[in-house]
Amino acid sequence: MSQIEKDFEEYDQNHLWPIIYQKIKNDATNQMLAEDFSTKEARKPENRSKNRYRDVSPYDHSRVVLESGDSDYINASIIEVPEAKRRYILSQGPLEHTAGHFWQMVWEQNTRAIIMLNKVIEKESVKCYQYWPIGEEQNEYEMFFDDVNLKVTLLEEEFKNNYFFRKLELEQSETRSKREVLHYQYVSWPDFGVPSSPITFLNFLMAVRQEGVLEHNVGPAVIHCSAGIGRSGTFCLVDSCLIMIETKQSMEGLDINAVLLSMRSFRMGLIQTHDQLRFSYLAVIEGGHRLLHISDKDVSSVLDNYLEVKGKEDKPPPPPQRTSSLPPNKREHVPPPPPPRDFDQEEETTKLDEKRIRQEGELDTDIEHKLKKIKTEVDKSVDSVVVSPSTVNTDSTLQNNNYAGSQNDKERRIQDYSSPEDDPVIWHNTQKEENSTESGYNLRKRQREERKKATQEVINMMREKQRKSEVMKKRKSYFKPLTVGLALLIGGILLYKYYW
């Protein structure tokens, strides 16, 4: 069994995924602050409307720069993985007014393929603009983007196993030069979570690879989902790690977390949940077995156990959400796009997982020691990051379309690592009912509710005071003309008596 598989089993059995994921987030934040990564271009007033999500911005040092037109900005980043000889462009799903810039980027970067990992509409929410001709369904085979002088023609469309394959023709109107662009749209990624099995995802990845569109000797492939960080980051992480395994002909020595941390230095927030990190491990393990031609007898039970659990989840009807164990922003009826997870939520998740560990049995001494060691590292990394309250509270800032502007640049950039979630977390382990002592989570929850209630009372008092003030203003406005009229009347009477 390789070290990757051992790590996976350890993290899985002891519910360490939230802790491992939080450590990666903290390390990435420290790296961002240490190297002073800037997102000034994305925050310029003229570029704000070009961002699908407020807190997902490309770094200035790795953003794609458009070569022509009035603006050189697009929310897309170049990701380089030298160890795998890979170069990707990760982009947000185009908005209607940025679709032309998206195709301009494809043209200028000599891109041979676009890999789309989402549907246009998911859960009644528009995740991406329909930037290619819809085809036979509406008898539309051409789209014109006059702002960039490009025309897109649909040549071929075919639905294969879990994905659409399209051949598109991109034509430059002025020069009449044409290029063929392949379009892969993977449609089997659930709206909320990760695929039930890495097998279908790996089949899709291998189909893309066979066309040679990911190779280093062609233009970088454009990969996008909605925000361009969750599913897109998973795709690039798995592909790069499998290249490294194939090159070394071994799974030993591969550090998936280190690869992810390196990729995060090019685009913020890659891999948005600990479930996506877990799925990435699974896909790398299964893909590594395929590449190394390990027989079924030698394959560890990691994948089998995963498929057994996920198979139960996939059977209809789905189990109801556990509102008692899910953080508030993971419950039902949350309007899309889901708000980002902040550090407090991650800490609550960690405590929930620790409670499950205690309920399901005491850990052995070695695992207990490792858990404490990992927690210590996480605490240290959290302590080394200075976060202002205004930057952590991303739930409220996401709903406000105006930027605060007056915040310190480094403080504002910390919120970039609490990114909007394409896909909220799927909990893989059942939360047991608590019958006796109150958990730390419930205590924190009650304290938050009390603070919220107190704050609401203050707000209500202020509103009532404001309402009374407005009533008094209205009354004064009524009395003013009466007072003036009465004064004029009395003055007229006095003048009349005086002169007559």
Observed structural traits:
protein phosphatase; 12% strand; 500 residues; 14 helices; alpha/beta; two-stranded antiparallel sheet; single chain; eight-stranded mixed beta sheet
Write the layout of secondary structure elements.
Layout: H1 3-13, H2 17-35, E1 76-81, E2 86-91, H3 99-108, E3 113-116, E4 121-122, E5 125-126, E6 142-145, E7 150-160, E8 163-172, E9 178-186, H4 198-210, E10 221-224, H5 231-248, H6 256-263, H7 274-292, H8 302-314, H9 343-359, H10 365-383, H11 389-392, H12 394-399, H13 409-414, H14 440-499
Parallel strand pairs: 2-10, 3-9, 3-10
Antiparallel strand pairs: 1-2, 4-5, 6-7, 7-8, 8-9
Helix pairs in contact: 2-7, 2-10, 4-7, 5-6, 5-7
Q: How many E-type strands? A: 10
Number of helices: 14
What would you give as the CATH superfamily of the domain at 3-330? Protein tyrosine phosphatase superfamily
Provide mean pLDDT, rounded: 77
Oligomer description:
single chain
Which strands sit side by side, in order, in the main sheet? 1-2-10-3-9-8-7-6
User: In the CATH scheme, what's the topology name of the domain at 3-330?
Assistant: Protein-Tyrosine Phosphatase, Chain A
What is the string of helix and strand elements? HHEEHEEEEEEEHEHHHHHHHHHH
CATH level 1 class label of the domain at 3-330:
Alpha Beta
Can you offer a commentary on this structure?
The protein contains 14 helices and 10 strands. By secondary structure, it is an alpha/beta fold. The chain has a domain of 328 residues: Protein tyrosine phosphatase superfamily (Protein-Tyrosine Phosphatase, Chain A, Alpha-Beta Complex). The strands form 2 sheets. The chain has an 8-stranded mixed beta sheet with strand order 1-2-10-3-9-8-7-6, with helices on both faces. A two-stranded antiparallel ribbon has the order 4-5. Helix 5 crosses helix 6. It starts with a helix and ends with a helix. About 25% of the residues have low confidence. Pfam families: Y_phosphatase (PF00102). It is an enzyme of class 3 (hydrolase). Its EC number is 3.1.3.48. This is protein-tyrosine-phosphatase.
